[in-house]
Amino acid sequence: MLIAQITDTHVRRKGDLLHHMIHTGRELRRAVEAINALPVPPAFVVATGDLVDRGKNKEYRRLRRLLDELDAPCYLVPGNHDDADGLRAAFFDHPYLPPRGPICYVVEMRPVRMIALDTTRGRKPGGELDAARLSWLDARLREAPSVPTLIAMHHPPFDIGIGPVDAHAFRGRDELAAVIAAHPQVVRLISGHIHRACEVPFGGTIASSAPSTAHQLIIDRGESGGLTMRVEPPSFALHQWTGRALPTTIVRTADPGAAPALRVVS
Ligand SMILES: [Fe+2]
Ligand SMILES: [Fe+2]
């Protein structure tokens, strides 16, 4: 079973470039094409937040048109750039989206079950899981203790060593780790938000973040006091269930005109 993860798509209206230079919609289109061309089709795609850039309805309508090109079903998780009402309106026919409250839900897929968590607190940059969401998660995990489970959310529950990023600490991080540690069927916790692939041991499992489909964070000392971003080829993550674990691969989509894959017979 293959699960594709896209994140931090930051879609804007057509022609409205991020920082006057980044074609986020075009980069998402390239990622969608790359996912559709995978030799093994994913069971589903999960988009882990910052789906659009300004939370505008027009951005959600464009996001919808771009994601409708995916061959696989797609599940949406909100990030701090999202607007829950705008998201629900554009994806009104996605039945897993709860009609109100935090956008938390379960995808009862097998062999890997997925639990999506809404870690937003309005449009503030930092993530949070309060007591209500943590107790909801604990209850869902108790329902299927022997089914390998993937948890998907926007904010990673770990620091990355860059001051301006880590300043927005994840509220409820230790409590989340305690819930995860009590449920060893959790095979991985995936996230986005930091626009860079990272992996950290967490609550007895692995917490990871995936790169953006558009622009990536530069790992520096944060001396500027801000963040340094760079346009790199659109990337996404593939999580493949082996029957024992869920290893993750980061895929950087080839530049147009790049050489095709070679098949080497040994
Ligand atoms: Fe983002
Ligand atoms: Fe974010």
Automatic annotation (TrEMBL):
Annotated ranges, domain Calcineurin-like phosphoesterase: 1-196
Record key words, sorted: Hydrolase, Iron, Metal-binding
GO MF entry, a single one: metal ion binding
Domain of life according to the entry: Bacteria
The keyword Lipoprotein is annotated on this UniProt entry: no
A Pfam family hit: Metallophos
Keyword Iron: yes
Family label: Belongs to the cyclic nucleotide phosphodiesterase class-III family.
UniProt-recorded name of the protein: 3',5'-cyclic adenosine monophosphate phosphodiesterase CpdA
Source organism: Vulcanimicrobium alpinum
Source taxonomy: Bacteria, Bacillati, Vulcanimicrobiota, Vulcanimicrobiia, Vulcanimicrobiales
Gene name tied to this protein: cpdA
